[in-house]
# Entry
Amino acid sequence: SLSLLGDLKSTVDARLDPFSRAIDSYGYHISAGMYLRGMAALGHDFRDFALIAMRKTESRDIAAYQLAPGAIEIGLEEGMRLLALYHECEQTGKWPGLPADVQTIDLPPWRYSALAREDDVPLTIGGVELEV
# Structure
């Protein structure tokens, strides 16, 4: 009986905390849940999931992590929700995404306060000072 399924991932930082954030950011927990579900559908009984994190450096340092059961469960739930959304989009022809209408965009609020503090500072763009 098989017990462990794994996936190799390249990463900037393979340490525990940064890689944990990468798992969430890139949806590796979703992939894990869906891989395990797919393997079960094929009759393979994998119980655990490992992520092998390999640094994107010349040294190619690696770290191996067993994904927590709760993370796999959340990943499977998210994966199934996304599959349902995909099915709905296929049926309706309506796909979520960016707004179709033209919207007004502005600088972030902090930029205005920064400009107010820099009245006597020369304005530069790309290192070139502009005459104002």
The mean pLDDT is 88.
